[in-house]
TrEMBL record:
Name assigned to this protein: Division initiation protein
UniProt source species: Clostridium ragsdalei P11
Signal peptide: none
Family that this chain belongs to: Belongs to the UPF0749 family.
Sorted UniProt keywords: Coiled coil
Coiled coil, from the record: 42-76
Lineage of the organism: Bacteria, Bacillati, Bacillota, Clostridia, Eubacteriales
Length: 237
């Protein structure tokens, strides 16, 4: 009787162990499948991103080629009459104003290097969107004709705002905890004098190292977003 009871006990223990091993095996298999699926999805996303980058580069090349052709037509038209040349000069000024073309000239460069502080992780210790908006306004007031932040062209439609751990400029992310470079084209002496007022960088100097210098030759890339007006339209007299 005892022998039978012992056999039954051993059988029950074996059944329980078998069940536990089977369950653990299934869990491990499920985890492996999930990891493989995640890796596959990650790989697919990476490939898709690279494909979009190639398509974007190809489209940008095509746009540049078309713009060069248009420029050739405009130059040919400008040589025919003074009135046509004046119209094209006005068109070129409008393009510079709205940021449709690359520009170059003298100006100033501002370098903002955030302080490395192991204990300063709060937002108050980082450069903010308000700091950048303030500097852009100061540069414009001093006569800047073209401005860029980390090679992102700032135009009349540019929005600058904080989004999480980043600052968005024309929907492009920049990190407030890394060096920010601001370029401004205009009268370099006037711009430098405007930046030399103590109150311009009084708040920023508490959270970052500020340097600015004159430059005889700056290049600012064009605004890379399309202009589209859905609501504003010219008033017809």
């Amino acid at each position: 009787m005892r022998k039978v009871a012992s056999q039954i006990s051993v059988a029950l223990v074996c059944c329980i162990l078998g069940f536990m091993l089977t369950y653990q095996f299934r869990v491990l298999m499920k985890q492996d499948n999930t990891l493989n699926l995640n890796n596959q999805n990650s790989s697919d996303v990476t490939v898709e991103i690279e494909q979009y980058k190639k398509e974007k580069a190809a489209l940008e090349t095509k746009v540049n080629d078309l713009q060069n052709k248009v420029k050739g037509y405009e130059d040919a038209a400008a040589s025919k009459s003074d009135s046509t040349k004046n119209l094209l000069d006005e068109l070129e000024n409008s393009r510079i104003l709205i940021g449709e073309v690359d520009v170059k000239g003298q100006g100033v460069v501002i370098y903002l290097n955030p302080n490395s502080n192991l204990f300063g992780n709060s937002v108050n210790n980082h450069i903010t969107d308000k700091d950048l908006v303030y500097l852009v306004n100061e540069l414009r007031f001093a006569g800047a004709e073209a401005i860029s932040i980390n090679d992102i062209r700032v135009v009349s439609r540019t929005g600058i705002r904080t989004a999480g751990n980043y600052i968005l400029i024309n929907d492009e992310k920049i990190s407030p905890s890394k060096r920010i470079v601001i370029q401004a084209i205009g009268d370099k002496s006037l711009l430098y004098s405007a930046m030399s007022f103590p109150e311009v960088f009084s708040d920023l100097k508490a959270i970052c190292d500020v340097k600015f210098e004159k430059s005889d030759s700056l290049t600012i890339k064009k605004y890379n977003k399309p202009y589209k007006f859905e609501y504003a339209e010219p008033v017809k007299e």
